Amino acid sequence: MASNPVHGLPFLPGTSFNDSTKTAFHRSQTLGYRNGYAIARRPTVGIGGERLPVNQLSQADLDELANKAPALTYGEPKQAPPAQFIPAHVAFDKKVLKFDAYFQEDVPMSTEEHYRIRQVHIYYYLEDDSMSVMEPIVENSGIPQGKLIKRQRLPKNDVGNHYHWKDLNRGINITIYGKTFHIVDCDHFTQV
Questions:
Q1: How much is the pLDDT for 54?
Q2: Which of 42, 95, 137, 149 could be cross-linked to 133 through a Cys-Cys bond (beta carbons 3.0 to 4.6 Å apart)?
Q3: pLDDT value of residue 162
Q4: Backbone φ and ψ of 105, nearest 5°
Q5: Which has the closest alpha carbon to 39: 47, 49, 31?
Q6: Does CATH place domain 88-191 in 2.30.29.170?
Q7: Quick one: the chain helix, strand, coil %, rounded to 5?
Q8: CA 6, CA 23: separation in Å to the nearest integer?
Q9: What values do phi and psi take at 147, rounded to 5?
Q10: Where are the domains of the chain?
């Protein structure tokens, strides 16, 4: 049977004896600084300077364990939630690509000119892949102006494909219902 080293009495369960000769009851220092940052260390001695009866790991071992398996301490990393589904008619609402273009119109009944250049704006609506062609109105011009082609999905070829925003760029020709439009410029939003 083990005995209490202080009094020489047996150490029975439920009884404890205080060492009356002990004079130091301070706690050991566990906070240190490394490179200007506060680092908490495990205590190596108990209250009063007594040696702790546990297996002591060095600070290097503790740092290595902390870096090896953070999932053991903090759990598995959480995945970012998936982005909310936003339908195209909401995400691209009121977003329009604007192209400046022109087309050449034949003038058969005039001796002064054989053709006329007419400037137009081609609008491409991202929400439903529709397009419209508008000609700026000039007062007293004597020719019909305004909306040349109303907003609709325009056919690209006889197969049934429609124009997409990837088909439109500066410097290309597109043919819509027999008229060939030459795209010359676009606005800043379209360019970006």
A1: 67
A2: 149
A3: 93
A4: -110, 130
A5: 31
A6: yes
A7: 15, 30, 55
A8: 14
A9: -80, 110
A10: 31-74, 88-191
Give the Cα separation of 156 and 171 in Å (integer): 17
According to the model, what pLDDT value does residue 155 have?
92
Q: What is the pLDDT of residue 114?
A: 92
pLDDT tens, residue by residue, 42-101: 777 777 777 776 666 777 877 777 777 667 667 788 888 888 878 777 888 999 999 999
pTM: 0.56
H or E stretch including 91?
helix 88-91
For residue 27, give every residue at least 6 positions away whose Cβ sits within 8 Å of its Cβ, in sequence order, or none. Answer: 43, 47
Residue in the block written with tokens 């209490």 = 4
Of 155, 160, 159, nearest to 175 (Cα)?
A: 155
Q: How far apart are CA 185 and CA 169, in angstroms?
A: 8
Contact 3, 9 (CB under 8 A): yes
State how far Cα 109 lies from the chain centre: 60
**Read out DSSP for 62-101?**
HHHHHHH-HHHHH-SPPPPPPPPP--HHHHTTT-EEEEEE
Rounded Cα gap, residues 126 and 96, in angstroms: 6
